[in-house]
Fold:
Amino acid sequence: MPRVALESTVISHGLPYPDNLHLAHEMERIIRDNGADPATVGVIEGELIAGLSPQQIERLAAASDGKVGKVSRRDLPIVVARKLDGATTVAATMWIAHRAGIEVFATGGIGGVHRSRGPGPSADVSADLQELARTPLIVVCAGAKALLDLPATLEYLETHGVTVIGYGTDEFPAFYSRGSGLPVDIRCNTPEDVAEIWRAKRGLGLAGGLLVAAPVPAEDEIPAAQIEPQIEQALAECEADGLRSAEVTPYLLRRIAELTGDRSLQANLSLLRNNARAAAAIAMALDCE
Ligand code: PSU
Ligand code: MN
Structure:
């Protein structure tokens, strides 16, 4: 049975309790209902696990803020050596999932290039982008949040040879919003289309992953103009509070969720479910090649 990886930073740092726990179990159920086998990825007492048990998922979901670290690639040696618990980002999840022989991964939004706060480009570039350039996995997401610099994010992916697929869309989605005005490299309307591009990439011996961007379902979309003021406010507060490095993304996610309330939570849950469905379908299409 084909496997689909799921990340855990979104569980521990991206959603409030207990919605996070319900969502984590629901994504696994959706993947099973669509014929594939879910593997939620995380770190328990220093062990890198692809396929957390329900109890282990609960442990990562229920830990109060700060108890379970956000683990990206650079944090892997630390949590292993110190035998810590950790919630894995897209980057760390890709690395662990690939090591476990998994080819497809469903997430919400990927990290990207942050908006610049001064003259010149921002140095805050998510390790997710580097990981997409080096680790062979199909990553299904709803694009990236507009709190990032989306044009710079797509430029980075282009420079590093990551093909960006619009799943049923010509535009790169902006997480809460279906479009960003920025084109994807290719549109695929079916899981089989995605599988074909993946096979071609592997056949050519090209390193790295494939980014599949599926827009949030229309009924749950928040138009970009409606969410931009809250994004601006969250960015200004982040700057004023002097946050840096790995703290920036969780801070912004939490503030935007607080400022936009239930609506953004519903959009977030909806797109995560949608991505689980799409990833399972793609995994099934790869399986019957
Ligand atoms: N964007 C979201 N929700 C999330 C994340 C990003 O809309 O939960 C998480 C993902 O786990 C992603 C990580 O891999 O944040 C990126 O963090 P950073 O920008 O520090 O690399
Ligand atoms: Mn960052």
